[in-house]
Structure to design on (337 residues):
């Protein structure tokens, strides 16, 4: 397949929108990460996304809409709490899990009776979705398992020749995927952490918001117990965000972590290994979110053999979200000091 790589001009957005409406695939920028779009109501188009990404078919997709009112195409009813969340956080990096309408295909929801919906705050993304006239299923525009793409070149590296169009926009402002908030049950629950935190949602709706108990738990531990686990959100079940290099997270008191990373770097360099270091400034969680995936991809290009990463505090909600990605990237490979 020949992929057109286009600047997001008005004419090119209209061309890409027609491709979406006709069942094609378009990669596009959002404020979180680049998405790979298909008509969410067209099961054949959605299957093409799984094929392009090499994505497991029980991994549900997030559906992107152009206006808050468009959520009515996807769910039969909205509670007062859902309306509150929409009013406070849309457009923005928050996905809401709601009961799905009958017309939303299993291919989009991973066979679940719920669907994740998001209204991005990227003007390019909203213009594309609006011009297409359809809700757009948009998982991250990368090969399944690789670090999420936050720059156009990341998308080109992974998907050139696999999709119809790549809209080459700006680098993503946020840098990690949206918070996923399950509003389909009585107690709101965060299934995937992001820069919108449980505390912020609690302040908006006046209700306690929980975290899914499987977050930051090695999926292999659940497999050993024989737990049947069907993900309600992307990023919950399968190995995600993995660089080519082996990655080790060093966890503990900050100075001890620095010392251990330096020790391990010295040992590995003596063995002839090329070492990459990920060590974010204390409390700079927003910058860590913005830079994390881009730094992993840069280390891939540099041919790094091992990545040594300093753990972030998970007391802060954004720190917890970045640690969620870091743990999955490292395959839960942790050294405590």
């Amino acid at each position: 397949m020949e992929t057109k790589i286009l600047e997001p001009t008005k004419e090119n957005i209209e061309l890409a929108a027609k491709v979406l409406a006709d069942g094609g695939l378009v990669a596009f920028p959002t404020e979180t990460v680049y998405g790979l779009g298909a008509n969410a109501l067209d099961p054949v188009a959605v299957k093409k996304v799984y094929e392009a990404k090499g994505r497991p078919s029980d991994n549900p997709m997030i559906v992107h809409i152009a206006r808050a009112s468009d959520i009515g195409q996807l769910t039969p009813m909205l509670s007062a709490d859902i309306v509150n969340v929409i009013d406070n956080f849309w457009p923005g990096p928050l996905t809401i899990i709601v009961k799905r309408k009958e017309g939303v295909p299993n291919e989009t929801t991973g066979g679940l009776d719920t669907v994740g919906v998001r209204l991005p705050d990227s003007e390019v993304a909203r213009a594309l979705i609006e011009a297409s006239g359809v809700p757009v299923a948009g998982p991250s525009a990368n090969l399944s398992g690789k670090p999420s793409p936050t720059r156009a070149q990341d998308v080109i590296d992974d998907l050139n020749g696999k999709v119809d169009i790549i809209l080459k926009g700006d680098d993503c402002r946020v840098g990690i995927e949206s918070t996923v908030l399950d509003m389909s049950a009585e107690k709101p629950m965060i299934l995937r952490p992001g820069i919108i935190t449980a505390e912020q949602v609690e302040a908006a709706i006046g209700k306690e918001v929980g975290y899914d108990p499987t977050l930051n738990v090695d999926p292999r531990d659940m497999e050993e117990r024989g737990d049947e686990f069907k993900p309600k959100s992307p990023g919950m079940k399968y190995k995600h965000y993995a660089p080519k290099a082996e990655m080790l997270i060093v966890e503990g008191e900050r100075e001890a972590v620095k010392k251990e990373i330096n020790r391990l770097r010295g040992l590995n360099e003596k063995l002839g290994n090329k070492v990459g270091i990920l060590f974010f400034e204390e409390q700079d969680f927003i910058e860590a979110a913005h830079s994390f995936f881009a730094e992993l991809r840069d280390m891939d290009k540099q041919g790094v053999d091992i990545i040594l990463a300093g753990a972030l505090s998970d007391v802060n909600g954004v720190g917890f979200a970045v640690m969620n990605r870091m743990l999955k990237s490292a395959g839960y490979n942790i050294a405590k000091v």
Summary: The mean pLDDT is 93. Residues 4-211 form a domain with the DHBP synthase fold (CATH 3.90.870.10). The chain has two domains: 4-211, 246-336. The chain is about 35% helix and 15% strand.
